[in-house]
Write the structure tokens for this entry.
Amino acid sequence: MLVDQYGRSHTYLRISVTDRCNLRCTYCMPADGINLRAKDAILTFDEIVQISEMLVEFGIRKIRITGGEPLVRKEVENLCGRLAQIRRLQTLALSTNGANLSDKAAALRRAGVSHVNVSLDTLRPERFQSITRRDRFSDVMRGIEAAVSEEFTSLKINTVVIRGFNDDEILDFVRLAVSLDVNARFIEYMPFPGNDWRKERYVPSNEIRSIIETKYSLEAKQQEESVHGPAADFRVIGTNATIGFISTMSAPFCYGCNRLRLSSDGRLRVCLFAQEGIDLKTPLRNGASAQELQALILGALADKWEKHPGEEELEKKTHGHMIGIGG
Ligand code: SF4
């Protein structure tokens, strides 16, 4: 039912449960932070479950919990437990920076989270400190170890590749993936308000791939997941590891977009780069029916563009802060 004018069926909902974070990554969180949303402006767990149940009725089959940093929201594992009970939801996933993961991994697994992505842009503690403005590298590595031992259905390490910062660590991340039997995913650097994106600083996926292929052989991998994500995945031949590329800038994949994004203040975006989202919180709190909310959502989908605006337009950064959207 969540089909736009280009025939794209939206089956994947990303829910940002907070705009707070325990790190200060330079490409996401402006140095002087952002105006955090007041507590009553944030959706309650009941409201998140209500909206999720309604959207699963409309066709959503995969939910990913994001932030800010979702593991800083108190008892987020309880929210996960309630979402996992929603009939017809196939996949419950979570994206985290890993800093609090060692404390939460077991509880998330028990709650029904099956897919975990950990954002990590360097394997060098001093660089970690410079890009996150926090000294939590060892906590993140402990978090990854805890997630490996919990044997989630899928564990991915997401790395934003920035030229002149961490593009010399690409092979190190592949080695990590091979040693842990997990997926290493390389994300092209994208322009967002508050970050210092410039064309010469983003490394296109084909360049990342050619660096990897100096040491490893890759084989294209079929999409196994019922609800696909944005990455092009490859098997690392001779290992159990896989590699993924998210090429939003060099090879946009909007033709197959299946994603909707709900921000922590109840705004639904039909695209990562949308300037605004439609407000679901106010009508929900005013007792709107599922049909009324559905009409709002279908209205937004009817206006969804075919593909994101090109580099030049994105460089103007008129879209929202990454921290408030949740990637
Ligand atoms: S840029 Fe927007 S339209 Fe394109 S794939 Fe991402 S969310 Fe979908």
In short: The radius of gyration is 19 Å. The mean pLDDT is 94. The chain has one domain: 12-325.
